[in-house]
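ok so for the tutorial part 2 we go from a plain amino acid sequence to predicted structure tokens. step 1 is just haveing the sequence, like this:
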Amino acid sequence: MHIEQVEQWFQHRLALTRALQGGCLGIGAPLGWLLILAIDGVSPSDALVDQPGLFAYMFFGTCSVFAGFGWTLGRHEEDEREHGLHDGLTGLYNAEYFQAALARAAQRVQRDNAPLALVIFDLDHFKRVNDQFGHPAGDAVLRRVGRAVQRSARGNEVAARIGGEEFALLMQGSDETDACQAAERLRRVIAEAAYCEADGQRHHVTASLGCAARSTWSEGLAQALYEAADKALYAAKRNGRNRVECESQLIAAEQRGDPQPQD
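step 2 — the prediction. this is what the tokens look like for a chain of 263 residues:
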């Protein structure tokens, strides 16, 4: 396990980290007691033999108190951090966290030589929802999309809201085939879950999705991957919306000289 991975493991478990730090600080009380006795001319080993219960009480008592305080502090830090990393409306990760996660994932491609895939998608004609039914109705759609995407994301996939009605799914260790399958799964889920209720009816919203993947590292990989997935997204919109497009399909079409649909 790399040192970086160990550091990230502890950083993502602040409650445990703070509890361990507090426990280490708590050890200072019984050790300080022994030091004071030594200064007074009392042998620490004799004191331990004469008063083992007192030493045990000080050791376990202070360690427990400090560890408990550290755990509470760590939980508070975790709550504050999670609040700052998530989009308040959808509950997904926000754009800032996504950019950082994409940069870290690109570094792992270089380090581990593992593939990385990205799905970018946004809601079709979402502006019409806000214009026709109002922003509260649009917010309701976004909340439903957020819940649906959270349920669909798997393992270490990072699901984020990166714009008004634009979202991303970052898939570490996945290739383009995996990304296309995940995108199709998302397309079906969103078509069912994304709706607003107005005039006694449900008004559903669909999504267009673009996929891209990289299996080897190169300079500027994160930006190149994002631009490739974004290009595939706009191809999905040009080709009729409520569909999935992948970078490899676009490249194949360009090589065949297929005519490109107009915006």
